[in-house]
Specification:
The longest helix has 18 residues. Helices cover 28% and strands 17% of the residues. The chain has 133 residues and is an alpha+beta fold. Bound molecules: adenosine monophosphate. Adenosine monophosphate (AMP) binds next to loops. The site of adenosine monophosphate has 13 residues, from loops.
Length: 133
C-alpha cells in the first residue's frame, strides 16, 4: 500500500504514544481518545482488515494482554473492544476503558473525543507500559 499512516507508525516514521511493541505487533494511544487510555493494537505487517491477519490467535493474545494492563493502569474493570477500520485501512483493534459517568452509553459514542494534553497522553502510555513489563 502506497501511503498507510499505521505502517508509518509501525516503522517509526510517524510518532505515537507507544504502549507496547514486540516483533509482530504495536499498540499506541488513539490520537482522538474516546476515553483516557483508548488504545489501538495493530499488526506491524500491513493487512487491510483485522480478519485478514493470518496470525489472529497471536493477535488476540496480545490484545488481551494489553486490555488487562489498561484495566490496571486506568483503574477500571471495564474495557471495551471494537473493530471498525473505516478511517484507517490498516488492521487495528480499539480498546477503550470505560468509567462511571463517561457519557458513552451502552456503545462508544465516536463523536465524544476527549481533549488530553500531550504530557498526559505520555503519562497514560507510560502507566499502561508499566503494567506490561
Ligand atoms: P477506524 O479506522 O474507523 O477504526 O478509526 C481509526 C482510528 O485511528 C480513529 O479512532 C483515529 O482517531 C485513529 N488515528 C488516526 N490516525 C492516528 C494516528 N496518527 N495516531 C493514533 N491514532 C490515529
Amino acid at each position: 500500500m502506497e501511503y498507510c499512516v499505521f505502517c508509518k507508525i509501525a516503522k517509526k516514521e510517524i510518532p505515537s504514544f507507544k504502549v507496547f511493541e514486540d516483533e509482530k505487533f504495536l499498540a499506541f494511544l488513539d490520537i482522538n481518545p474516546r476515553n483516557k487510555g483508548h488504545t489501538l493494537v495493530i499488526p506491524k505487517e500491513h493487512f487491510r482488515w483485522v480478519w485478514d491477519v493470518s496470525y489472529l490467535g497471536d493477535y488476540f493474545e496480545v490484545v488481551g494482554k494489553i486490555a488487562r494492563a489498561i484495566k490496571k493502569a486506568l483503574k477500571t474493570d471495564f474495557v471495551v473492544s471494537f473493530i471498525i477500520g473505516e478511517e484507517v485501512p490498516h488492521a487495528h483493534i480499539h480498546l477503550v476503558p470505560r468509567f462511571p459517568g463517561d457519557k458513552h452509553g451502552p456503545l462508544i459514542d465516536l463523536s465524544l473525543i476527549q481533549k488530553i494534553k500531550k504530557e498526559e497522553m505520555e503519562d497514560i502510555a507510560n502507566e499502561i507500559r508499566r503494567f506490561l513489563s
